[in-house]
Amino acid sequence: MQVTFNASVGLLGAIVNETDGHQHAPVNSTEKKNGRTENLYKIQCFPLYSMLVAVGRTQVDYFSLDVEGSEYKILRTIPWTKLDITTLTVEWNHVPEGEKAITRLMEENQYIKFGQISMYHSQEVVYVKDFLYDFRQYYD
């Protein structure tokens, strides 16, 4: 997929447009909008799984996901049965689907919500792979 990324806010850039490859995102440019300059870049995105397989790594000890609003969409693309991610933190305060949707998705993929990290500019959830899941399913 291609996205248009607005990098005019320093470290707090954001995706402003998504395309599935059939539409054309704007080319890299600098535009004026509401009296300020916006730096827009067309970026090609690849699934996390594809990148990890390309480098020969499907086991990850810690993964931090903070992309200013597309976290849920990204998590839905991960083939959890093919990757072994032990611990991850996910920023959720910009996610339209909300923290509950992320937690439900993670629980469906055998992760436990371990805690939350709250900062002035960020709300994150910590998930840990439920290594006892296989044992627990026999007792339910």
UniProtKB/TrEMBL annotation:
Q: Name one Pfam family in it.
A: Methyltransf_21
Domain Methyltransferase FkbM stretches: 17-111
Question: Which InterPro entries does the entry link to?
Answer: EGF_Rcpt_Signaling_Reg, FkbM_mtfrase, SAM-dependent_MTases_sf
Designated name of the protein: Methyltransferase FkbM domain-containing protein
Q: What is the source species? A: Daphnia magna
